[in-house]
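@channel sequence for tomorrow's demo:
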Amino acid sequence: MPDLQTESIIPFLKKIPTFQNLQQADLEKISNCLKPQTIDVGECLFEAGDLYKKAVFLLKKGKAELCYNGQSYFLSAGEFVGLANALDMSPYACTVTALTTLEVLTIPIEGLRDIEYSCPLLYNGLNRLIAGHLRDRSANRQVTHRSLLQAARTIMKSPVATCMPTITLREAYEKMRARKMSSMGVVDQQNNLLGLLTLTNIADAALLHGAQPATPIEVAYEKPHIVKPEMPLWQVEEIQQDQNTKYVIVVENNKPIGIISQTDILNTFITEQGLLNHVITATTFTELAEEKHQILTIASDAWDNNHYTSVAIKIISEFHLSIQRRCIELTEQEMIADGLGKAPANYTFIIMGSGSRKEMLINPDQDNGIIIDDTPAMQTDEGKQWFAEFCQRVNTHLDEIGYPSCSGEIMASHIAFRKTLSQWQQQISHVINFPTKKAARWANIFLDFDTLYGDEELAIRLRKHIETELTTHQQLLRLMVEDDAEGQPPLGWFNRLITERDKEGKAKIDIKRNGLRIIADITRIYALKYNINDRSTVDRLTALVRQGIFTADFIQSITVSFEELLDLLLDHQIQQLRNKSTIDKLIIPASLPPLHHESLRMAMLAIKRFQEKLQTEFDTLIF
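structure tokens (generated this afternoon):
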């Protein structure tokens, strides 16, 4: 039977959004952890510099003032205080003073973790805090490039393809497939906008919610994100990022007049900059090498003129990928000119790792392979020899252009990464059905692949084979989780940053190995588990929210952390390139301004929580 404290506190908790959807049993558990106290007018709950009190505070009644860095914020009933310190147990950086008599509910730290598991929304509150802290640093990034200052109407695709809400999922799918569209607006008889339907919506409705082909699309379309025709593109881009949506619809008087995708904005920047013009017209490998030397200009412009570093990284990646595609084309021409003839079978050159996710930085090396169609020619020595020679030349030319050969020989010139489709399928089946730790490490590299050049259908067929195999055999994912656990964010006691000394004695952190790669690896595991076809890490994180695997608050903390690490690393590499220094991924935390240093620590803390989430849900994830 609940005690008097429980009976008085539970009605208060029910009024707070964080607790509104909880069951009575959970509310009682939380209430039993709370310890009430009273703070008189003028007294401090804690002061800047005080040692951490091993508790989080919930204001039940009264008003308080929070002073931080010379600024004041006013707090009232229902607000949490001290959440940041619960994350890292650090001394308080602000002062909280009672403006009226305060009734405070204290949550001891020893009970906080149990409450987090009972109350996921409280857990999400912690993640919102991390995301908000990191956003503070990037909020002042300026957008100056004219391509992002132009109005939405200048690049929108118009007219918008539309349909009525009464058509079936099958009819909508067939219409979109016939017209090669990935989205449609949903309108009523007066052409008023009702929603947005995407191929992903249709797939989710059928696969996740059991909708039938004859079901009306009302079960599938989503609330549209709308913008006005004159909104500048940088604001459109912010809406797409903040709302985790790939599309916005341009409206006038609630009538759809155009649609803009993330890709449209990216292509606008690339086209206006003329980034690829010289690449696609290059006629020699020497010319491609000269274009590769433009990477400083490309990277600097992309970073300076995009609010989100992940967008800048996509632009840089498109530059790298276009050079590599042109290199393959020129190698084909070279093979013919040397009397070796055309390819004896269709093929697709694939790229793995950061290239497949379009997350390439200043100096990527080679991670590639080739899938060859199963034809009679591939049963002959001549056919095999043609591709062996072709792949060797491609990898050699890429190295000459400025993409170093992979030290682990993950390249198409190595027979382990040069196979026919059936050979790849056989290897994948063996790896998935008889997994080992070595196979898990291999899978963490190879299963992140995308088409670089050639017959994309071969890559699609291999990816479908992987999805089918993983549906019934998921032991490999278990081992991939264990492989991921071997990498750790650089945090020690009290979540302080841990550094490693280089040969010169400088304390550094490998941003990619100890940060970005961990996020990418974890996200890849979830993507494989839930058949998410998005390639980039940010898109995969968005898909995890869309499918209900994680809440938007939790994923936002990871996404913002990913952006922060990308921002620090790209800035670092651009400065190294300008100074003609060796390009690396090593950040010296002590050289960062205080705000940047704290943002780095908070980002690593978010990654640690992401990794802990994966480990905690391990059994649920795999089985």
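heads up for whoever presents: DSSP finds 25 helices and 21 strands in the chain.
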